[in-house]
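To whoever is on call:

I kicked off a structure prediction for a single chain this morning and the downstream step that reads the tokens threw a length-mismatch warning. I double-checked the sequence; it's 213 residues and nothing unusual in it as far as I can see. Pasting both halves so you can look.
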Amino acid sequence: MGELILVRHGETAWSLSGQHTSFTDLPMTERGENQARSLTPLLGERRIGLTLVSPLVRARRTAELAGLDALRITPDLHEWNYGRYEGVSTAEIHRTRPDWDLWTDGGVPGPDQPGESPAEVGRRADRVLAGALDALAQAGDSDIALVSHGHFLRVLTARYLGLAPAAGALFQLATGTLSRLGTEHDRPVITAWNLTLPESILHATPDARENAA
């Protein structure tokens, strides 16, 4: 059986500044688009049977630039809803709530957005996993790709491993990276994490990247 391929979208202005970004539909920076393109040779080593992608433009654009096709927009793959902490960094939040922790406290309801608790995000991750694992079972040796967002993919990884949603705090996930979830002796395991090309290749010309790959 194949594996689940996790792709976090490329850099945006807010991921660079550390601002929480859920429903704000920001485009990627130029570097973020280069990060997405750099995933092409890593994905080229795999046989992808289906790609599930968040509806937000930064995820859809990442999938396209990375060369993924047969995209299936999957609303449950959207990022953690931070409520009124949207666009606010953890450092700013700690000025008034020094003990706040996303992984235990979750988002805070705002005037237009409800925010989500860790348990609510965990339930979304469980739904995504159920569908993805069912597709994987039917895909033979092909992989299923999930193109999504940092905090959500960390929760999904925790749930895949049978851990509580808050255990996603243990899995730091950089922008524009590829990770893999598989099995060992029929147990769920992480088989690769935060894979990317070196910066020297990321900023090279297309010919140089092709030769390096």
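Update from on-call: the warning came from a stale cache, not from the record. Cleared it. Sanity check on the structure: The chain has a mean pLDDT of 93.
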